[in-house]
Structures are given as C-alpha cells and as structure tokens.
Design goal:
The chain is α+β, with helices and mostly antiparallel strands. It has four helices and four strands. It has a two-stranded antiparallel ribbon with strand order 1-2. The chain has a two-stranded antiparallel ribbon with strand order 3-4. Helix 1 crosses helix 2.
C-alpha cells in the first residue's frame, strides 16, 4: 500500500486509486464518485419513489450502476442556487404585482 504526505508535517495518507474508466461502477466506486457513504448509495438504490437504476450481471451478486444513469438520476435533485422559501417569495411578489389592489 502506497502512502503519501502533502508536506513533512502531515501524516502520510493512503493514495487513492483512480476510478476505473468502466461505464459501470461497483457500489464502493460509485460512493467515491458521488462523494457519499456506501450506505447512502444503498438508500438511493432502494428509494421507494425514485430508485437509482442498477444491474446485476448473470452469475454475479454485486450490483453495478451505469455512470451515465447515476449522473442523470442525480441531476433531477440538483439545486439551482435558490432555496424554496426564496422561490415562494418571488412567486408571491409576482402575483401581488399583477393584482389590482385598491
């Protein structure tokens, strides 16, 4: 196992292997790719409303997720920089601005 340190005062860290170029990622690889814990990936896979799609190859037991499927699935949950309260306030202001208030 290769260890690396950023400078002389830091403890060496284990070097991370790069993610494979494979189109299909194992769950530990997907967790690293997404920057979340493996348990979070398991929760994504078993979500009752919008589960993350996966494949189990014949004769194998481990699940694999297509990188593009994960990216498309995650994009549906992407926040665009404004929170819900701000959006509601903008809509209310717009509606009130269109009303004739005497």
């Amino acid at each position: 196992m290769k260890l690396v340190a950023d400078d002389a005062t830091e403890k060496p860290k284990r070097a991370r292997r790069p993610l494979p170029e494979s189109e299909y990622l194992s769950l530990p690889e997907l967790a690293r790719y997404a920057g979340v814990a493996r348990g979070t990936i398991q929760a994504f896979l078993s979500d009752p409303v919008d589960p993350l799609p996966y494949i189990i190859y014949p004769g194998m037991t481990d699940k694999r997720v297509k990188r593009g499927d994960f990216d498309a699935w995650a994009e549906r949950y992407r926040r665009r920089g404004t929170d819900d309260a701000a959006r509601v306030n903008d809509v209310v202001r717009e509606v009130l601005g269109q009303c004739d208030v005497a």
